Amino acid sequence: MTDKHDLYRMQKGFFRDAYRSGRIGWPRTGVSPIVRTAFERGYLGPGSRVLEIGCGEGRNLRGLWPGTAAAVGMDYVEEPLRTARKSLPEKVSLVQGDLFALPFREKSFDVVLDWGVFHHLKKPERERYPLWLLHLVGSGGILLLGAFSEKFRHHPGEVRRQMFVRHRGHYDVFFDRARFSRAMGPRWKLLWQGEENQGDGLSYYRLGIFQCMA
């Protein structure tokens, strides 16, 4: 098995174990500001068909429904989907699926939300990622992206010499403002960039709204 498959298999185990143990280091409640911003700027609305990749326990799905036409959450581990199902209306669909083998037909959605998946991909997969999303939304489609800021720290005093790290069984990549603006390549135009933080002095995230221009 290749190193790539070993890495992603290891990451899947990391997230499964985190949800089973309850030792989760990312937000579980409250909607990301990128959802509110997308509604305010008209990129989300009553006619939007939205897919959240890596939906976890559904914190952002609660903000997407009922303001959109359809909301679908996908995660590649089952544990958080069980929790999400208990708190979300039945009209919100939940799917266990893999980013590398997306179980959706071409142009099934108008908007894709990814808060927390892209920054766990290595460079070859990050380079293919814009094409995977193009299949989902087509030209004119919208991506709402949340990823680790360069200011993110796993613990106080953490020092990094590069913009990526393997940490506790998973891979993290970090983005400064310029790198984030280029993250989706030439086919996607950055419409808005912002920041989210959890108020702990450690957890900082880049937020971006991109549109597919292919």
TrEMBL record:
Stretches assigned to the Methyltransferase domain: 50-129
Superkingdom in the source lineage: Bacteria
GO MF annotations in UniProt: methyltransferase activity
Record's keyword annotation contains Ubl conjugation: no
Keyword entries, A-Z: Methyltransferase, S-adenosyl-L-methionine, Transferase
Single GO BP term: methylation
Entry-linked Pfam families: Methyltransf_25
Keyword S-adenosyl-L-methionine: yes
Regions crossing the membrane: none
CDD domains the record matches: AdoMet_MTases
Name used for this protein in its record: Methyltransferase domain-containing protein
Originating species: Leptospirillum ferriphilum YSK
